[in-house]
Specification:
Elements (H helix, E strand, L loop, with lengths): L14 H5 L3 H15 L3 E6 L4 H4 L4 E3 L1 H9 L6 E5 L2 H11 L1 H6 L9 E3 L15 H14 L5 E6 L4 H9 L3 E3 L4 H11 L2 E5 L2 H10 L7 E4 L10 H5 L3 E4 L11 H10 L4 E4 L5 H6 L2 E2 L2 H9 L6 E5 L2 H10 L4 E4 L15 H13 L5 E2 L3 H16 L2
Parallel strand pairs: 1-2, 1-3, 3-4, 5-6, 5-7, 7-9, 8-9, 10-11, 10-12, 12-13
Antiparallel strand pairs: 4-14
Helix pairs in contact: 2-16, 4-5, 8-17
């Protein structure tokens, strides 16, 4: 095994040295680091990660499930989140809830959350920033009482947007509980501002019986979101103009082609897909729903699945007794998730061993408090 050049005790290891190593060498170094760190370390792997990375995850799942499970771990000192930035933020918020409750003078230790590559972001989350949302709220306040509006942010959003919801009586949702969250919201207030993913909001609201003419699309780049005062006043759901670049690739013609080529095939898609695809699908649900559905399906089942490529390929390998296809004819993977590789994982772990942690995600205390409020509201919704 190659050794790194000598460094000062407080100097992080150079990432470029790890970039030059072969995967076998990197994998061996990850295994060695995991063994030495022991229970102090918890590696979280999102379902969309590459196989070479996911093999080292102690827990796998979707973003919120991973953070919630990590928060239940009382032993680890370090969480290495193989996912994207907003996921690492959520892990920091939830894993350090006890620390926040204890106060800075209490012995509760703070868990350090590491994102192996800081460039691993989320294009959807980036489609709504706090300045835009604050501006939207201000503009809405000029034409209506914002006390009638419930802000709801999808888990795929920055911590400061979750905090915005917490401060304004709002809530967070996931793709699996979006309907329950909207029902809760309508019991509290007359209308909902849903961001950043328009498709999850539209598909969920429509399945709840809300008509399309009661939904308004808010474009943050235009005055009053490009809507009219009359349209906003008549709305029940204000949808942010955001989307997932991966799930937006699936088209109705892909569904038609699979039905023609494979009679009897079931179409299974994520609710971040566009409405025509969701309407044509046999089953629609979150990542966990997709996994559970395929895992429980009988041998010989045929599926065309509309979600991220790595996840579909993993299901295909796990269930050779079924016929599993990727719904799009084009490669459609989460490019930002793909940025975390063995080089970044090994580099981040060895720096933890040296006591020179890199890429630590720390949400400011005030933001973490209000984001936690919105997340805890979500946990009370059934």
């Amino acid at each position: 095994m190659q050794t790194a050049p000598a460094l000062a005790a407080n100097e992080p290891l150079d990432f470029e040295a790890f970039r030059q190593l072969e995967n076998d060498e990197l994998a061996a170094r990850v295994r060695a680091a995991k063994q030495e760190l022991g229970e102090d370390l918890l590696i979280l792997g999102h379902h969309y990660q590459q196989d070479e990375v996911i093999q080292f995850a102690d827990l796998t799942g979707d973003s919120f499930r991973l953070s919630a499970l990590a928060a239940q771990n009382d032993r680890c000192r370090y969480i290495v989140f193989c996912g994207v930035h907003f996921m690492a933020e959520t892990a920091d918020i939830l894993a350090n809830a006890k620390h926040a409750a204890a106060g800075s003078h209490e012995p509760a230790h703070r868990v350090q959350v590491v994102l192996p590559d800081l460039s691993a972001g989320c294009s959807m989350a980036d489609m709504a920033d706090i300045d835009q949302v604050e501006d939207c709220w201000s503009q809405l306040g000029e034409v209506m009482d914002t006390g009638e509006v419930m802000p709801v942010t999808y888990i795929n959003s920055a911590a400061n947007l979750k905090a915005f919801c917490g401060r304004h009586g709002g809530i967070v949702c996931t793709s699996s509980n979006a309907a329950a969250v909207l029902e809760w919201s309508f019991r509290q207030r007359r209308r909902v501002l849903f961001f950043p993913d328009q498709h999850l909001g539209r598909n969920t609201a429509r399945r709840m019986g809300i008509a399309l003419d009661e939904m308004v699309l808010w474009d943050p780049r235009q005055p009053l979101g490009g809507a009219t005062e009359h349209g906003i006043a008549a709305s029940r759901v204000l949808l942010w103009r955001g989307h997932c670049s991966v799930h937006g690739m699936f088209r109705p013609e892909h569904v038609t082609a699979f039905r023609q080529k494979h009679p009897g095939i079931k179409i299974l898609v994520h609710p971040e897909c566009v409405m025509p695809v969701v309407d044509m699908a046999d089953l629609v649900g979150s990542t966990e729903f997709i996994l559970r559905t395929v895992d429980q399906a009988p041998a010989g089942s045929q599926w065309a699945i509309g979600t991220e490529l790595h996840l579909v390929n993993r299901l295909k390998n796990r269930h050779p007794e079924q016929q599993i296809y990727f719904l799009s004819p084009m490669v459609c993977m989460c490019a930002t998730m793909y940025r975390i590789d063995l080089s970044h994982l090994a580099w981040s772990l060895e720096n933890l061993l040296r006591g020179t942690p890199v890429n630590v995600i720390r949400v400011p205390d005030d933001v973490a408090h209000w984001a936690r409020v919105a997340l805890e509201r979500m946990l009370t919704v059934r």
